[in-house]
Amino acid sequence: MNAPLVDVRDVSHRFGQHPVLKNVSLTIESGSYTILLGPSGSGKTTLLSILGGFVNPSEGKVLIRGQDCTFVPPAKRPTTTVFQDYALFPHMSVGGNVGFGLRMQGVDGATRAAKAREALALVGLAAAFDKKPHQLSGGQRQRVALARALVIEPAVLLLDEPLGALDLKLRRQMQDELKAIQKRVGTAFIHVTHDQEEAMALADHCVVMNDGRIEDEGPPERVYARPATRFSATFMGESTILAGTVVETGDRTSTVATPVGPVLLPRALPMGSAAALAIRPEHLVLGTTSVGTKLGKADVSDIVFQGSFKRMLATSVEEPALRFIAKLPATATVRPGDTVAISCDTDQIILLTG
Fold this sequence. Notes:
Layout: E1 6-15, E2 18-28, E3 33-37, H1 44-52, E4 59-64, E5 67-68, E6 79-82, H2 94-98, H3 100-104, H4 109-122, H5 138-150, E7 156-160, H6 168-185, E8 188-193, H7 196-202, E9 205-210, E10 213-218, H8 220-225, H9 230-235, E11 240-249, E12 254-258, E13 261-265, E14 274-279, E15 284-286, E16 293-305, E17 309-316, E18 323-329, E19 339-344, E20 350-352
Parallel strand pairs: 3-8, 3-9, 6-7, 7-8
Antiparallel strand pairs: 1-2, 1-4, 4-5, 9-10, 11-12, 11-14, 12-13, 14-20, 15-19, 16-17, 16-19, 17-18
Helix pairs in contact: 4-5
């Protein structure tokens, strides 16, 4: 079995007495696009800084290509970092910026220029070689920073919220371009973001962090469809959360009593145990159905038109503390103030374990 490209082993870190990473272990495979996703203060940027060599962990090890790089400085490890502010030299041409890392390595001018042109062509900016950074748009400067990082052929490219400064339309365009570039070069990308949509658009390996720990990790489809914990279910997309107690159990099924009625689950759970259930917005259905799970009635408090769909917020009649979040067709006629019956497909109910 081949060793992973990056192997983070039991890494913890403290700033003074404040713990920001707590016994984190993580492996990254060659050619993967990994997203570190979490809210502010979750530890994702500190972990990226440790991978880049900008921070030495208080405990644990970081191996890259099987070599212990825990205390290797940034310039001597096989990683490069793309920062949110791009960090381009304003007095240098675009070609000079892209070739700067090669210059520091002692590569001759002709080779530097050829490699810089290659890297710029890779990111779709072949014609920008002689321009200055201020002559480029935000998205173009981002691609220059990417070319500068890729030209030295790192084993791992680290991206610290690289799209955070871009407007929505440009951010989505750059998501497509980043994924396409990563597939072309085959370099492992590790990308920090707090944007769930960005994570799902880019990642083939999604790592959800909270309070210095990894809450959940795996393909984004699995993390979204079957989140491992309550935090993952509510941070990686939205969910309606039902709390209940197991009141009946069989060989392969359990009945959970909830404030909006009984829910039958296709797995055996301990009698009397507490259960937390999550339902994604697209799996809630308005009106009564002959199949599925009935979830009582709800008073609609808000309808937000979002182009291809409407987002509905509603409060349960049976349990006023429960809020339903539903994704409805754009043509739905429901309005604030309406009272509606709510149900869902039983197979789409997620049992949360933490």
